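Sequence, please.
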């Protein structure tokens, strides 16, 4: 899995960099990012669309035709639409989610932001999200964008990943640590 992520990263970075440079030259980074977020949401929300992107059975021409129809119906931003069509023609749609993530990382870095992955046992309230973002901003010194995930198996608490740092205050981890400690004693 790590090797596959490395290959995806190697494919995604040049595409994301090229799109970022184009968007920056046109002063449309925010608009392009918004369009990419909508496509990423579609890939996340629709398993059929996600399978379509990854499918090696559908050839690049058929994917390009289908993507063209989807983007024209969605009235996507012209820059985003043209970019996704190029990715489709090059047979790289399987890497589109990684390209979008790389673009978002690049845009966030340009704004002086960092991204934190936050996993909680239950969805966080807007007040909790704001408090967490403010706390992380005070610790890191940069604006923090939170990507929230829910994992009920955590029971309670949070797992926060910022860059290479991880803070795990979940009850699941604490219970596991207690279980290991009790086995050592008894």
């Amino acid at each position: 899995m790590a090797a596959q992520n490395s290959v995806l990263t190697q494919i995604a970075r040049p595409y994301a960099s090229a799109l970022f440079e184009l968007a920056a030259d046109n002063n449309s980074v925010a608009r392009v990012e918004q369009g990419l977020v909508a496509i990423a949401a579609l890939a996340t929300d629709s398993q059929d669309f996600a399978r379509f992107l990854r499918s090696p059975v559908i050839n690049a021409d058929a994917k390009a035709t289908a993507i063209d129809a989807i983007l024209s119906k969605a009235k996507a931003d012209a820059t985003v639409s043209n970019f996704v069509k190029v990715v489709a023609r090059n047979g790289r749609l399987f890497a589109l989610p990684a390209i979008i993530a790389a673009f978002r990382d690049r845009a966030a870095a340009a704004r002086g932001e960092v991204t934190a992955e936050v996993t909680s046992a239950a969805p966080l309230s807007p007040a909790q999200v704001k408090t967490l973002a403010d706390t992380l901003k005070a610790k890191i010194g940069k604006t923090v964008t939170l990507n929230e995930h829910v994992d009920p198996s955590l029971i309670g608490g949070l797992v926060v990943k910022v860059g290479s740092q991880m803070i795990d205050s979940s009850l699941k981890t604490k219970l596991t640590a207690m279980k290991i400690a009790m086995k050592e004693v008894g």
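The chain has a mean pLDDT of 90.
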